[in-house]
């Protein structure tokens, strides 16, 4: 299976969830328009599992923050590289790409990685 996934773990202030949702909805449409197979943005709900590292710990959230767990699915790593380049060049993304953009997240605190699919059921 060549399917490839980009994954994200993002701390987000709970009072900025609606703002983040609006940005993520636009971003998801842009990724899908350029060929992503699926785009998910999930907000933390049941994060208090005992006996293991919590998502709050992993995302180093502060009081008043929750966790966004998101992923984008691509046909392959090569498609991911092509799609991401097209997304970054898409004019709809420009307002989110400026250094002074008032983003609801601190990108320096976001965890990101590309993953080869090991099991797909």
Key traits:
121 residues, 4 strands, Alpha-Beta Plaits, four-stranded antiparallel beta sheet, globular
Instruction: Just give the CATH class.
Output: Alpha Beta
Please write the string of helix (H) and strand (E) elements.
EHEHEHHE
Helix content: 25-40%
* Total count of domains: 1
In angstroms, what is the radius of gyration?
15 Å
Contiguous low-pLDDT stretches (5 residues minimum) are: none
Number of strands: 4
Average pLDDT for all residues: 94
Widest sheet, order of strands: 2-3-1-4
Q: What CATH architecture do you see?
A: 2-Layer Sandwich
**Structure classification:** alpha+beta
- Please give the largest β-sheet: 4 strands, antiparallel
Number of helices: 4
Residues in β-strands, percent? 25-35%
Kindly report the CATH topology.
Alpha-Beta Plaits
Topology readout:
Layout: E1 4-13, H1 17-33, E2 38-43, H2 55-59, E3 65-74, H3 77-89, H4 94-97, E4 111-116
Q: Explain this structure to me?
A:
With 121 residues, the chain is an alpha+beta fold. The chain has a single domain, classed as Alpha-Beta Plaits (2-Layer Sandwich), CATH 3.30.70.100. The chain is 32% helix and 26% strand. The chain contains 4 helices and 4 strands, in the order βαβαβααβ. It has helices at residues 17-33, 55-59, 77-89, 94-97; strands at 4-13, 38-43, 65-74, 111-116. It has a 4-stranded antiparallel β-sheet. The longest helix is centred in the N-terminal third of the chain and has 17 residues, at 17-33. The chain is globular.
């Amino acid at each position: 299976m060549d399917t490839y996934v980009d994954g994200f773990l993002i701390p987000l202030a709970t009072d900025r969830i609606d703002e983040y949702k609006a940005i993520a909805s636009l971003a998801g449409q842009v990724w899908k328009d350029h060929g992503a197979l699926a785009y998910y943005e999930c907000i933390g709900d049941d994060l208090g599992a005992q006996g293991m590292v919590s998502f709050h710990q992993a995302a180093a959230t502060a009081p008043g923050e929750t966790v966004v767990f998101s992923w984008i699915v691509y046909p392959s790593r090569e498609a991911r590289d092509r799609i991401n380049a097209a997304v970054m060049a898409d004019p709809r993304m420009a307002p989110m790409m400026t250094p002074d953009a008032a983003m609801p997240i601190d990108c320096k605190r976001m965890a990101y990685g590309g993953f080869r699919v090991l099991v797909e059921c």
